[in-house]
Design brief:
- This protein is α/β, with parallel strands linked by helices.
- The protein is built from 6 helices and 7 strands; from the N terminus they run H-E-E-H-E-E-H-E-H-E-H-E-H.
- Strands 1-3-4-2-5-6-7 form a 7-stranded mixed β-sheet, sandwiched between helices.
- It is globular.
C-alpha cells in the first residue's frame, strides 16, 4: 500500500467552490448515494478507523470534506445524494454547488463512484457517470458491500454493470469492493496513484 494514504488527515469542510483550498494540484472526489458506504470506504482506503465520519443519519454531510494526503494532493468526500429525508431545496442547492465544483475545480482529476452492489446503478449514478464523461473525468466505480452477496452473485453484478456501461462515453473501471473484507482496495489504490499524479485529459 502506498504510505501516502496512511498519512491522510482531515483538512477542511468547504460549503462551496469558493472556499475550497488553494495550492492543491491534484484531487479525486468520492461520490455516491448517502448509504453506499462512502465514509467506510475512505477509512478503509486510508487504513484509519475514523478519518471520515460515518453517520447513522444518511445525507448528513452537506459540504465538500477535504482530506489532505500531502502538500499537493487531496481526497474529497462529496455530499451523498438520493436520500429522501434531505429537503428538496437542500438537494437542489447542492446539485448546483456540485456542478459548479466539478466544472470549475481545476485540481479535480477523477471521480470515485461508490454504488451499493445490491442496488446496482441508479438513475443518479448514471447521471454522475455521464456528467463525468462530459467533463473528461475518469471514473472508478466501486461496487460496495460485495461481502453481502455470495461470490457468484457479486461477479454476476460486476459483469452486468460492465455490460451496462459498454457503450458509455465515460472512461470507467468497475471493481468489487468490500470495506469489511478489504476487497478492491489494491485496485483503487492503483487507480488513485495514477489520477493523483497526471493532469486531467484535455
Amino acid at each position: 500500500m502506498n504510505p501516502l494514504y496512511h498519512r491522510a488527515e482531515f483538512m477542511l469542510s468547504a460549503p462551496n467552490l469558493q472556499t475550497t483550498p488553494e495550492g492543491i494540484d491534484y484531487e479525486v472526489a468520492f461520490a455516491g448515494r448517502s448509504n453506499a458506504g462512502k465514509s467506510s470506504a475512505i477509512n478503509t482506503l486510508c487504513n484509519q478507523k475514523s478519518l471520515a465520519r460515518t453517520s447513522k443519519t444518511p445525507g448528513r454531510t452537506q459540504e465538500l470534506v477535504y482530506f489532505k494526503l500531502d502538500e499537493r494532493r487531496c481526497l474529497v468526500d462529496l455530499p451523498g445524494y438520493g436520500y429522501a429525508k434531505v429537503p428538496l431545496n437542500v438537494q437542489l442547492k447542492w446539485q448546483k454547488e456540485l456542478e459548479r465544483y466539478m466544472e470549475k475545480r481545476k485540481a479535480l482529476n477523477g471521480l470515485v463512484l461508490l454504488v451499493d452492489i445490491r442496488r446496482s446503478l441508479a438513475e443518479y449514478d448514471l447521471q454522475m457517470i455521464n456528467y463525468a464523461a462530459h467533463l473528461n473525468l475518469d471514473v472508478f466505480i466501486a461496487l460496495t458491500k460485495a461481502d453481502k452477496l455470495n461470490r457468484n452473485g457479486a461477479k454476476n453484478t460486476l459483469f452486468a454493470v460492465q455490460k451496462q456501461l459498454k457503450d458509455s462515453t465515460a472512461t470507467t473501471q468497475v471493481e468489487l469492493f468490500s470495506s469489511l473484507k478489504k476487497e478492491g482496495i489494491e485496485q483503487l489504490h492503483h487507480w488513485l496513484d495514477a489520477h493523483l499524479d497526471e493532469p486531467k485529459k484535455a
